[in-house]
Amino acid sequence: MNSSQWEYVKKHYMRAEVRKEIAEYCARRWVAIHCEERDDGARPMIRYWSRSRPLTIRCEDDVINILEKFSSIKPRAFYATAHIYRRLDSIEDLASRENIIGSSPTWDIDSRDGDWRKVVKKAMEIMEVLERHGVVKSVFFKWSGRGAHIHVHPRAFSSDLLRKIDPLDVAYSVTQYIVGKIEPEDGIVVENKIDVQRVFTAPLSLHRSVDRVAVCVPPDELENFHVEWANPGGYKHFPHAWRRYEEGEGDELAEKAYAAVGPYLAGRARRRRKHKPLDQEILEAFRKFEL
User: Fold this and answer.
1) Count of CB atoms situated within 10 Å of the CB of 132
2) How many structural domains does the chain have?
3) What band does 42 get if pLDDT is binned at 50, 70 and 90?
4) Which one, out of 13, 200, 234, 248, has a CA that is 20 to 30 A from the CA of 215?
């Protein structure tokens, strides 16, 4: 990233609307930033203010603070977890599942040939399946740069439901359950990436490498979506899309999904039957992302 590109990035994040969206979306979430590509081709991902304090954004000024603190490695893209936390003051706060008070089922959609229309078509299919399961007012589409995410608002699940089923288990099982209900399609990949540390692009963040901005779209506007809506110089974004929800509309789906899929299990692909200790996962994540 040369100096003119860095000025372009800073100018984008100086926009009041951009700072507002990122700050409000990232509130009470664990935040990450992707930075300038290094000589070895790596793009560092930063997840901590310091060795013991998770990266968070609590107000619009924090967006600016991050750009300034990490200016030597030039932040470009902002991310946040699907999970909402009660506290985010230390690594210990990340190592307790009881500290997660809400989580968003999230589908990651990509097209192998880069055809954005195929991604939108598959997103509409996922939304139709969610609608058949009663989830209508708490779902939104987000173009992330090269692909898209479908998110369900964490407050679509009532406090009564979350007392019975852990929020992380809700997000994981609902995502996996719906993946199993959609038709596989050549060239389109739909993934469940819910885990204890996964982050997703924040609304109005720039993409880490392509010249696109993450825009959010409500279901009733999705058929009109065009990839040019993600043009940083003239994007089309619906601020209400990610804020809308109806508390409890996801409860029935969550109970059905949890019964069919079961809880999130670390190392599931390796057929392990027990959770890896969460503090171990967090420490491993710290080592992975530490510069």
Assistant:
1) 11
2) 1
3) confident
4) 248
CB atoms within 10 A of CB 199: 20
Q: What global pTM score does this model have?
A: 0.90
Q: How far, rounded to the nearest angstrom, does the alpha carbon of residue 69 sit from its chain's CA centroid?
A: 23
Residue 261 structural domain: 3-289
Out of 17-31, 156-170, 229-243, 253-267, pick the least confident.
253-267
3-state SS of the chain is CCHHHHHHHHHHHCCHHHHHHHHHHHCCCCEEEEECCCCCCCCCEECEEECCEECCCCCHHHHHHHHHHCHHHCEEEEEEECEEECCCCCHHHHCCHHHEEEECCEEEEEECCCCHHHHHHHHHHHHHHHHHCCCCCCEEEEECCCCEEEEECHHHCCHHHHHHCCHHHHHHHHHHHHHCCCCCCCCEEEEECCCCCCEEECCCCECCCCCCECEEECHHHHHHCCHHHHCCCCCCCCCCCCCCCCCCCCHHHHHHHHHHHCCCCCCHHHCCCCCCCHHHHHHHHHHHHCC
CATH number at residue 222: 3.90.920.10
**Confidence band (pLDDT; 50, 70, 90) for 39?**
low
pLDDT over 80 (residue 273): no
